[in-house]
Every structure is written in C-alpha cells, then in structure tokens.
Amino acid sequence: MILFLTIASGLAWTAVYVDAIRIGFRDRSYAIPAAALGLNFAWEAIYAARSIATGITVQGVFNIAWGLADVVIVFTFLKFGRSELPAWVTRRLFIGWAVLLGVTSFAVQLLFIAEFGWGQAARYAAFLQNLLMSGLFIAMFVARGGPRGQTLLIAVAKWIGTLAPTIALGWYGNSPLILGVGILCSIFDLAYIGLLWGSRHRRQMAPVGPRGRGGLAAATGSREP
C-alpha cells in the first residue's frame, strides 16, 4: 500500500509539473506561486542530489524528475514573472527579489535538515511548503482575477499528489503533524478546485460576445485552462 501511494503521489505531482510547464509557455506566465516554487525547487534539488549520492529509490526517481521539471518552471518564472508585477518593479528589482527568494528557500531547507535530520526534514518541510502552496494558489487566483496561468489538472493533481502521502506518512506512519497538515492542504486544495470549476462554468454559461468569445472571458482577457 505504501509503495502504491508513493507511486500515485509521484505520478500526480509529475502531472502538476508537466502541465505547469505547458500552461506557463501558453499563457506567458508562471503556474506555480513564486514562494512555493522557490521552496519546491530547493527541496527537490537537495533531495534529488541526495538520492543520487545514496542510492536511487522510487521516491528518488521522482525527486530527480521533479527537480528537472522545476528548472523549466523556474525559467518560465524568470522569463514571464516580471509582467505579473506592478510597473514600478524594474527588471533589476525583480531579479534581485528572485535571487533572494532562491537563497532563502535553500537556507530554509538546510535549516530543516540541521534541526530534524534528513528523514524527518524531508517530510516536515514538504508538507509545510505544500500547505503554503495550497493557500498561495487561492491567492494567485484572486490576484489574477481568474484562472489565467492555472488549470483544473494542476489543482486536482496537486490535491491527489498531497493526499496520497498524507495517508501514507500521516495515517499509516502515525504522524499527527503530517496528518493534520495534510488534511488542511486538502481543505485548501478542494476550495481552489471549486474556484477554478466555478470560473470555468461561469465562462461556459456566459453570453457569446461579438467575436464568438464568452462575454466574461472577453471582459477579463482570461483563457480556457
């Protein structure tokens, strides 16, 4: 059962990253919230390197694949992220912020390792940054005024990808912290799925504009995820 849940989580998160790359280039944006992206990239880079150094496991294979995918997602953030910010944020300020975010993310992951050791740090950091990501996805939807740069596939796959290790490590692993944080992630993830689903339904029901696009989509400039 644990192996099945590990593979299910790995495949679901792989789907998140692949679609994040696709939607990032399609919408000329980035599909993972910046702070969560920084922490994820740092986590996956560190634990992928450890997997290579200590022996490849099933989880290690996914860590390496996610780390490689995150390189491309970080590229979409660096290429298109400046356009998501106010005009007063210059390119130099944006790059400075991105570098600070990256350094901070790696520092946080290394501090988790120093405090808890490799095994527990990987779990605690992953679930806490996952909860952060869940909240930031909702904030992204609000800030962008809709689903631009986001898809239901990303939302649903993220939920499944988090639920599986919540069961494996929280329930079967008898960890109240992981179980509790995982349940909170599911609450936020389901709320985000509801936002995307409701937005999609509203655009499908909107009257057709003069050029054949729904009125709401034409008004907001949003695109079908």
Outline of the structure:
This protein has 225 residues and is mostly helical. It is built from seven helices and no strands.
Q: Supply the helix-strand structural class.
A: mainly alpha
The whole-angstrom Rg is 18 Å
Q: Using DSSP, what is the number of strands?
A: 0
Overall pLDDT: 90
The structural domain count equals 1
The N- to C-terminal Cα distance equals 33 Å
Main sheet summary: none
Taken as a percent bin, the fraction of beta residues is under 5%
Number of helices: 7
Query: How much helix is in the residues?
Result: over 70%
Low-confidence stretches are 209-225
- The geometry reads as globular
List SSEs in N-to-C order: HHHHHHH
3D architecture notes:
The protein has 225 residues and is mostly helical. It has one domain. 80% of the residues lie in helices and 0% in strands. The chain is built from seven helices and no strands. Helix 2 (34-54) packs antiparallel against helix 3 and helix 5 (152-171) runs antiparallel to helix 6 (176-205). The longest helix is centred in the middle third of the chain and has 53 residues, at 91-143. The two termini are 33 Å apart. The model is unreliable at 209-225 (pLDDT under 50).
Annotate the secondary structure layout.
Elements: H1 2-27, H2 34-54, H3 58-80, H4 91-143, H5 152-171, H6 176-205, H7 215-220
State the main characteristics.
mainly alpha; 80% helix; disordered C terminus
